[in-house]
């Protein structure tokens, strides 16, 4: 059965790079994160991995799919923050260097991922990760898939480039992987980069080429192809060079949308270019409607763009540099119909990382907020109407993926200079509290089932996926600094050491030390002070009284008695004793 791929994501999804076939990077739903609640965003969970996350995740309901730089594709539970499976692409391609640095795409039939070490496209089963099909589109040794997959109805579209052969756009059958057509961009020096954009109703596919050091009639050009057979319908050579700010193809590409201009409805295509040049064309014939140079006078590169159809605004994140390569990051709002600049702000810099050679980053928006992730590891949230900075979070990463919005939450992947990475989920303070309770209940059930079946935890193994790490929110209502929700102390996510999620040490999430999230010390979020949310009185939600939900009495949900949920006795779910679910490493990588 043919299924039309969404032009925009739904509240519980982000199915492809750019959020959908229009590549708008816009989430229309998700009312819990707005200009009022944005200052209360907190880290719900974070996952540290052996390889970084230079690409944006894709999401369907409570399943998140993301590839990392060590060549694996991973499925993660968005509620628990736990790894469900991790599969090396080399298992299916036979190429030890296989890696995907672009987003996957989620279709009803499966997950589609491209290999940047070969011209191979793969489809995997969403539940198990088993191979459904693989197709080598271009067999040359230096061929690579250079765009994230774009899916519509029963076809998947990607671009393929190599140093020797001409670049091409290919269409494959989504169910079988059979090649339907392949259209070549001439000459070979023209590279096709960035997400493709698709107008399903008019059966048109838009691709952007950039030069490989040489300029010709089809370098730095917009190509418009017929989706039925790959025929080139028309092309438009750009005034400036197409933006090639990074090898991560999730960031920049053409965006399709509809505008009311002088009382007439027009389909348009927006194009980011090098040196901060941005223009909007008629999508039917390539006529230039308007163009603008963002931050004129600088050697400026566009990091990412987003279109808000509710406000008819275009948001442009740019990385303006002087000849000494000192970065200055800007966010600009434009009127989509006229190109008029509405506001332009300088974004806060990372105080921890020298951003001279950093790459990556991107942008996404919702009705009220613009989210930017920039080189240097800082994520900033901005009021979409006024340009006011609401809050920012510094991850101290060197490469940042484009942000993704789904399930009333913000997801971001990062890569560090030591080839490790971390994936974050941010949500509102209220959602964190609800999700923590739900997560604990689910983990309790999982643990009990595991004990009954006498199975080892499926996440045990070499190489831990930990929830620990540093990072802090800044600005009004900021979350905190060191020792935060996923604090960096020894003991890991559920360990017993200082900073442990449910540990007994100081700063533990539910620990007994001063400042513990649910601890007994003064000032704890759920501390023991008078009036505390989960104070120490009898019957308190997380108190010490007998029978309390997380009380200290024998058998208490998180108490200290033997066999309790998070207690210190043997078998405790997150306790320090032998057999505790979090007594050692929480989980291991590559367990399938």
Describe this structure in words.
InterPro entries: PQQ_b-propeller_rpt (IPR018391), PQQ_rpt_dom (IPR002372), Quinoprotein_ADH-like_sf (IPR011047), WD40/YVTN_repeat-like_dom_sf (IPR015943). It comes from Xylella taiwanensis. With 592 residues, the protein is mainly beta. It folds into two domains: 13-430, Quinoprotein alcohol dehydrogenase-like superfamily (Methanol Dehydrogenase, Chain A, 8 Propeller); 487-592, no CATH class. It is built from two helices and 37 strands. The protein has helices at 90-93, 429-453; strands at 13-14, 41-49, 58-60, 63-67, 72-77, 82-88, 105-106, 111-114, 119-124, 131-138, 144-145, 150-152, 155-161, 168-173, 179-184, 190-199, 204-211, 221-226, 232-237, 255-261, 264-272, 277-282, 288-293, 299-308, 313-321, 327-335, 341-346, 359-360, 362-365, 369-374, 378-383, 389-394, 399-400, 404-406, 409-415, 421-428, 472-474. Strands 2, 28, 33, 34, 35 and 36 form a six-stranded mixed β-sheet that branches. A five-stranded antiparallel β-sheet has the order 1-3-4-5-6. It starts with 12 loop residues before the first strand and ends in a 118-residue tail after the last strand.
Strand and helix map with partners:
Elements lengths: L12 E2 L26 E9 L8 E3 L2 E5 L4 E6 L4 E7 L1 H4 L11 E2 L4 E4 L4 E6 L6 E8 L5 E2 L4 E3 L2 E7 L6 E6 L5 E6 L5 E10 L4 E8 L9 E6 L5 E6 L17 E7 L2 E9 L4 E6 L5 E6 L5 E10 L4 E9 L5 E9 L5 E6 L12 E2 L1 E4 L3 E6 L3 E6 L5 E6 L4 E2 L3 E3 L2 E7 L5 E8 H25 L18 E3 L118
Parallel strand pairs: 28-33
Antiparallel strand pairs: 1-3, 2-36, 3-4, 4-5, 5-6, 7-8, 8-9, 9-10, 11-13, 12-13, 13-14, 14-15, 16-17, 17-18, 18-19, 20-21, 21-22, 22-23, 24-25, 25-26, 26-27, 29-30, 30-31, 31-32, 32-37, 33-35, 34-35, 35-36
């Amino acid at each position: 059965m043919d299924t039309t791929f969404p032009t925009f994501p739904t509240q519980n999804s982000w199915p492809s790079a750019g959020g959908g076939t229009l590549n708008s990077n816009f989430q229309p739903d998700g009312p819990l994160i707005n200009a009022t609640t944005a200052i209360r965003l907190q880290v719900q969970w974070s996952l540290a991995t052996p390889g970084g996350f230079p690409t944006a995740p894709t999401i369907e309901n409570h399943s998140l799919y993301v590839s990392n730089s060590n060549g694996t594709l991973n499925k993660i539970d968005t509620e628990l923050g736990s790894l469900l499976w991790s599969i090396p692409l080399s298992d299916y391609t036979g190429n030890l260097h296989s890696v995907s640095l672009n987003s996957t795409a989620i279709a009803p039939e499966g997950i589609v991922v491209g290999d940047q070490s070969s011209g191979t496209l793969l489809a995997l089963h969403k539940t198990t990760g088993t191979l459904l099909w693989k197709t080598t589109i271009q067999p040359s040794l230096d061929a690579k898939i250079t765009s994230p997959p774009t899916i519509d109805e029963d076809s998947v579209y990607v671009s393929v480039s190599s140093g020797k052969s001409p670049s091409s756009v290919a269409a494959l059958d989504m169910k079988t992987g059979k090649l339907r057509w392949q259209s070549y961009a001439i000459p070979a020096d023209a590279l096709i980069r960035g997400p493709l954009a698709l107008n399903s109703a008019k059966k048109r596919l838009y691709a952007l080429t950039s030069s490989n050091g040489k300029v010709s009639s089809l370098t730095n050009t917009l190509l418009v192809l017929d989706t039925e057979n790959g025929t080139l319908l028309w092309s438009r050579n750009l005034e400036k060079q197409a933006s090639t700010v990074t090898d991560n193809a999730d960031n920049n590409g053409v965006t399709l949308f509809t505008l009311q201009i002088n009382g007439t409805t027009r389909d348009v295509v927006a194009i980011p270019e090098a040196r901060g040049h941005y223009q909007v064309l008629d999508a039917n014939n390539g006529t230039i409607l308007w163009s603008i140079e963002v931050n004129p006078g600088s050697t400026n590169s566009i990091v990412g763009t987003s279109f808000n159809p509710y406000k008819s605004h275009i948001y442009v994140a740019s990385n303006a540099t002087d000849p000494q390569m000192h970065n200055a990051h800007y966010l600009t709002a434009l009127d989509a119909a006229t190109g008029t600049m509405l506001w332009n702000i300088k974004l806060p810099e990372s105080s921890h990382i020298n951003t001279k050679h950093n790459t990556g980053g991107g942008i996404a928006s919702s009705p009220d907020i613009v989210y930017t992730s920039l080189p240097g590891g800082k994520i900033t949230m901005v009021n979409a109407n006024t340009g006011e900075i609401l809050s920012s979070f510094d991850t101290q990463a060197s490469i940042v993926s484009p942000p993704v919005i789904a399930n009333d939450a913000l997801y971001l992947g990062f890569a560090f200079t030591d080839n490790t990475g971390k994936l974050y989920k941010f949500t509102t303070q209220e959602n964190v509290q609800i999700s923590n309770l739900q997560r604990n209940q689910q983990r309790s059930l999982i643990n009990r089932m595991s004990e009954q079946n006498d199975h080892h935890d499926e996440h045990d193994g070499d190489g831990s996926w930990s929830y620990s790490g540093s990072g802090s929110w800044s600005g009004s209502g900021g979350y905190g600094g060191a020792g935060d929700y996923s604090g960096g102390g020894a003991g890991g996510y559920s360990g017993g050491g200082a900073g442990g999620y449910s540990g007994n040490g100081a700063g533990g999430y539910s620990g007994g030390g001063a400042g513990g999230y649910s601890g007994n010390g003064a000032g704890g979020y759920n501390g023991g002070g008078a009036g505390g949310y989960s104070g120490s009185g009898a019957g308190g939600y997380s108190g010490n009284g007998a029978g309390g939900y997380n009380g200290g009495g024998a058998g208490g949900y998180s108490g200290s008695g033997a066999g309790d949920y998070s207690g210190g006795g043997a078998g405790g779910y997150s306790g320090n004793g032998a057999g505790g679910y979090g007594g050692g490493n929480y989980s291991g990588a590559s367990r399938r």
